[in-house]
Queue: 4 jobs
Job 1
Amino acid sequence: MPPETPNWFTTAKSALNTTALGPRAEHQGRVEEIADGVALVSGLRDVRLDEVLRFAGGQVGFARVLDPDLIGCVMLDAASDVQAGEAVFGTGEVVNVPVGEALLGRIVDPLGRPLDGLGPIEAQARLPIERPAPPIIDRDLVTEPVQTGVLVVDTLFALGRGQRELIVGDHSTGKTTLAIDALIAQASSDVICIYVAVGQKTSSVRRAIDALQQRGDFARCIVMVAGAASAPGLQWIAPYAGMTMAEYFRDKGQHALIVIDDLSKHAATHREIALLTRQSPGREAYPGDVFYIHARLLERASKLSAARGGGSLTALPIAETDSGNLSAYIPTNLISITDGQIVLDSALFHQGQKPAVDVGLSVSRVGGKTQAGVLRKAAGTLRLDYAQFLELEVFTRFGGMPDGRVKAQLTRGARIREVLRQPQHAPLRLVDEAAMMLAINAGLLDPLPVERIARFRAALAPALDRDAPEAVAAVVQNGTLDDAARAHILAAMTRLIATFAPEPAAAP
């Protein structure tokens, strides 16, 4: 009998028979230096900017600096196993990420790799993280509102679909909470939510995810995490990758809202990478292109014209200040790039006024054009009345007996301030916000003790659903209130306020 053919020989022969033979070009270089997440690579003369490079051990990075002799490669994986002298291969592809509906309800890293243990993601396509912003001819006016459910924002600094509004403030003043509340509020809208965590602590990211899962519609959210322990390269590409995932929905004619938390840490990562790749430092040691990296990112947020599908991408970038210094380099850059800013004040935060929005420094440069009509009518002169109250309050602290008109203003202003105070992760419906403004303007809350207004707010939504269902339905369907519906809402609130009114003093 002839000897039996070994299995390995059969397998090898089959592989050779199915292998296409022919010349193949391969771009190969070598690692000259590796440290702090940045590798200097030689021998890759045909590499282009942002091209993915693959190391012999399977790690990947991307070409960030193209010098004549060396390529500055920023690592996207752990660099602990990469050694000088190892081979590096050019892939011919720029950094790209998966996009599509398969990402909804998932937690991923900036390369689209799952972090939630729910298995692989079968994406519809892959797109580069760096994409040009839509040209002016393809854009439309920003006129549709984004309801955040935060009363102080929706009444004073209305946001529009396609707008870029900066949230800025000191450390631990509620910036992330305000942004997460805006994402939670989209559970009752058609807006897709994307939350990008850049350089954040694991505990902070976990709290944000828990809030979205428990209070929002997580099945229509994408969470991208590049935590403080992630490679600097992952932190650097995270905002761009998140923007690409959001643009997929905008380009399909849908609406998306992206929160980038935060760009101060992203700028610090950019400075770190720039210094390691030996780029010249500039103001506050940031490289000269730090303005450009954020400008080209946020310019991608837009409202597309009807010819392009009418989709929108709204951006809420977050930035951190030191001791309220808005004139620092990075906050100044971002303020000039965006369409307005919501400034959070640490003094207000520590006084218990949350959200701690400074109504004097905050602004929305799109303005009331995007505000829901029912809210624009109901809010009226709220900002002016509140500003006058704050000034009067300061003057009356020095003593003196104010007259009746000033006392009335102080009483009304104290109620406005209490109404604008709102618990976290409890966004209001549009009809509830309009009702609160109607109650303020009609003076219904003036006789109510300030400490009872929080209870009134908590009981308002059930009372409106019970006593004025037609008015609630009108606001939900049309965003408007006619005189009859307004009267029904005022009557329902009058009955509700009567249950919280102070009891009359007992006769002596």
Note: The radius of gyration is 28 Å.
Job 2
Amino acid sequence: MKNITKLGLSALAGTLAITSANAGEMSLTGSMEATYTTGSGYSNIGNELGMDKELSVTGSTDVNGNTVSYKQTITDAMAYNDSELSFGTDFGTIALTSAGAPISAIDDVTPTAFEEANAMVGSIDDVNGNDGTYGIRYTLADVMGSGFTVDAFYTGDAGSGDAQADNGTAGTAGAGSGDGKEIVIKGSVPMVEGLSVGAGYAIMETINQDSQAVGPGTTDQDEGTAYVKYATGPFSLGYQIGAVSTGGNVLYKQQYYGISYTVSDDLSVSYNWIDASKTAADGLRTEQDFDSISASYSMGGMTINIADSDCSNCSYSANRSTDATTVSLAIAF
């Protein structure tokens, strides 16, 4: 009887050891950026001082040898923003996420010291895909040892926003959005040191359950982009094209150019410009141009940036010009 009891206790102890959960880790990180911006051509001039700040709560744990991670961002107003739950496997990473979309992450990857050329002036309708919408994302970092990454995303309701409450659904009958799909392939070109390429495509489908809610002209929105970058020594060069065809039969096209120079480990400078056009349903075409010079200097966890930008035919409005100069102090903590 004693032997049977000992055997039972030993089996129970072994079971508890196998099924006990590994303790996960949680961390809180953040960043802030204070700016001073001045320029001309603005319709409303307000306070030239500004600040942007964001917090991120991240956590991870181990489940049977696989990493499970969670991320939740918190906005300036202390409100919840994008969220992500990801599962790392031997066959890639699967995530339930609204924290970015594959094609949005490569909307403009031309080299820059600070901001994109259109960051402070005008507005541009470029590829954005299903950014901010909760869905399923699959990432394979190295396809068969090629050095190329495949990044794909799917959502059942394009444009529906962040995750709904558990056990809940969202949506109404009638006109609305169908599913959204996108894919990005990018990586370094084998045997050509310093050369990298990438391309992406996204589609947001429109459905019409009520024929009287929307006219017959409703169409899907398609987006696509491709880029090539080359780095040699302290120089980096980049060229990219993009296009967005909206459901309203409006076509947006962009061409991006960028060159950057690394002066030292702490200092870099760049020049970027963008040619963008809008072709309306009636065939009217408007061209919008941006150019920007920027510099960035890092000191540990603090970075000082400066950029001078201008645009013509801003926001696709003929004869509208805007320029701006920004000085930025960014700190990560």
Note: Residues 265 and 298 are 8 Å apart (CA to CA).
Job 3
Amino acid sequence: MTNNPYSLSDYDYHLPDNFIAQSPFEPRDHCKLMQLNRKTGEISHHKFYEILDFLNPSDVLVLNETRVLSARLLGRKKTGAQIEVLLLKQIDEIHWEALVQPGRRFRKGDSAIFGDSELMIQVVDELADGIRLIKTTPAGEKFLQLIEKIGHIPLPPYIKRPDQPADRQNYQTVYADKAGSVAAPTAGLHFTEDLLNEIRKKGIQIVPLTLHVGLGTFRPVEKADIREHRMHAEYYQVSPENAHLINEAKAHGGRIVAVGTTSVRTLETLAGDDHILRFGFGWSELFIYPGYQFKMVDAIITNFHLPKSSLMMMISAFTSLPILKSAYQAAMVHQYRFFSYGDAMFIS
């Protein structure tokens, strides 16, 4: 290890399987919380509900209110061949980008049926990176209603068990509202309604935004020099009212505390060099890695991320690669749980 912030290999680390959380902690806000000083590397260990002690009345807590789709669909072709489709992002009323398995059996022009033949998917085109452009019948709102009935919650592959009915609730934040993600904004999974109410009682503003988590977040970085990596676009939306609340707090010395890397990515996409947040919607391709100058985010609540992931690179940009590595080593010593259903960090 060289602590080279641009070398992919320096973001690798060994994590024994027993550290990878296979199910959520109950209750949500009783999981472990590591507090990390991003300048000094000093750490302390807590329970997540103690986050209340680290937030100030002048802070704004920014949440991603995206909702995870039941985006994993299991179907069959007319030949009887089994097909799996993972929806990635909606293009229009009838078209989506998706990953398919096995790819060799589901090529351009092929179709398959899902559920009790209620849903048909046809491959319209084959795109880069193994992605398929698919056409759905039915379309629009009927399609979204149907996949909630017949689809599966798309648990990450490192969760080595089938999805269960409980995952439909456990793999959503309690404030999930706008459907569109294929992975949870996992830092938000630790909040309960009671904890959010306690945060509000302390005078802290809670402001939502939306970023629909897609391939850009969970596909690994493969370039040896990470600066050559290109993120896949993810849809974001921030209202004028919420941008104003964030700007007012920032102007009066309040901290902008981002819940999760998806909130960070949205805020930094819309922040200008003047440190003012714009409002609007669009597609973010922002890749944050060491050397990036943060314009909006002052503190981050996040989980412990996969080796060689763009998320680990983002957090290294917020603190430093050596400090992050040291914190991850400490997390293993103290038996923290890693990844989506794992424990949390508060970095400030």
Note: The mean pLDDT is 96.
Job 4
Amino acid sequence: MSDAPSALHPIPRGPVPEAPPAHSVRRIDVRIDGQTVSVPEGATILHAAREAGIDTPTLCYLESLAPVNVCRVCVVELEGSRALVPACSRKVEPGMIIHTDSERVRLSRRMVLEFLASSVDVSTAPEFQGYLQRYAAHPERFGASAATVAQAPKIDNELYIRDYSKCILCYKCVEACGVEAQNTFAIAVAGRGFSARIATEYEVPLPGSACVYCGNCIAVCPTGALMFKAEYDLRRDGAWDEARQNRTDTVCPYCGVGCNLTIHEQDGKIVHVSSPLDHSVTRGNLCIKGRFGWQFVEIQPAPDGQKSKKK
């Protein structure tokens, strides 16, 4: 006789799975610029400031990357602390009293911005330019050629260029290429002190490196040191104009992952592709197809027996 259950007497269903109860998160009260803010335990001062509606400048910080504390633009004054503290990484503690716009803070931010702008080209960094105006920074007082790191752009592939004369060593590209996102490790920090620079392994050309051309380093670069080749060519010809560009959100057509894209179009042509940081699938990251594989849009269908042509 078979031990199989009878269809007339089905096996009763087991208990319905339930999600575990959410852990309660302790809230911490801190005082920022005269107002009390309640934030979750483990939050940073930067997070608390944003909760309070306070715009704190950042250059090396990005929500999707671990803070590296190198630009020092986000420093704030913490009562009881001898030195200014970085808001992007310092965790809040009960009873903290923080000043984000004191004269000491403004002076520190102004000096950092002046040092950076006097040594690198920040002409393609609109956010940086806004900070210069906001803090009345005058980098020209250090001289027109003070400690400049001007060098020719590295153009060794058709997808993106590297112009390290615009690099402020924020390390965001290194983090995006490493464990924070891509895990390719094609670029890293080489040298020390004044010789520190972003480079491929053994300074080889990009096509000979471990780069997979995902372009995630371009997406996080705050100064334009890493740039689409298409954008670089348009800027060189004086044709780049963001005021004439339309942006359209869509889904990448190459696979079923569902990566979101923002298409930047100028004069009927795609000139740039980005991905939103707040998207749950991509978090700003894409692969080579999503970032660069849009040339097929510009190919016109040709009559039978003839080759297709680009628009």
Note: The first helix runs from residue 45 to 51.
